[in-house]
Fold this protein.
Amino acid sequence: MSIKKYEVLLQTADLGSFTKASEVLGYTQSAISHIITGLEDELGLKLLARDRFGVRLTAEGEALLPAIRAVCQQNQELLRQAAQFHGLEVGQVRIGTWLSVSVHLLPRLLQTFSQRHPDITFELLQGSYEDIERWLSEGRIDLGFLRLPASGHFETTLLLEERILAIFPPNQAPACERVTVEQLKQSPYILRLDSLDNDTRELFRKTQHTPRITYSAKDDYAVMAMVEQGLGISILPELLLKNAPYHLEVRELDPPATRQIGVACKHANTLSPAARQFLQHVKQEAGGDEC
């Protein structure tokens, strides 16, 4: 049975859509459907079911998923070892990330790594902290960028500590360089509807101050755009504000607030050689410490 059928099933199940799987794999939607139907016929089991949200694994598909993922990973390792006889270095690294890391950290890391390892490819999945921890646990990704401390069953490396900053519309920020959380209660607040905003929620809990929430948005750039238009203020991580295409005024918090960003894996000694090489590269570039 062709390994490619397993890979098509994995991509379709992971993405939850024939359309998205066809875009990633370079097949037509009908070809994706035909390949999966052929695999189901060979196994004698229904693996995927359609619903109004897309496609999802059946109970049988869920049960077989770990074995199918393991087969695909073993195939990647076989190809990597075979390539070594030709003096090549190949493999794929799957990374879980979120917006500010994808925009401001990963491009430089990927660029410097790819100069030395041009035949190693990458698949990036963007999600929340909870998504990334789940993907790591399931083996869907090799490495994940997370806020530290992360779940205790991951091996983590600290990459950086960034400030949490208050943002104001143009010409509406206080004259002082720093603002307290209590001062932020005086203005309408724009809340980020995302688990990535846990840093801000913890800050309000710690200081026992509740903002006057007037608007909420799940997209970080939507929050910045609303602040720019004078609809309210908000609190965002420093990395996200870097080179932001909006006219905003930024103030430090008093007392200062920060969050730690790290890279995590289940077990470094079980990573593929390609993933281990990239993890080592990230550590060297960032000067991270083991956690």
User: Anything to note?
Assistant: The longest strand covers residues 249-265.
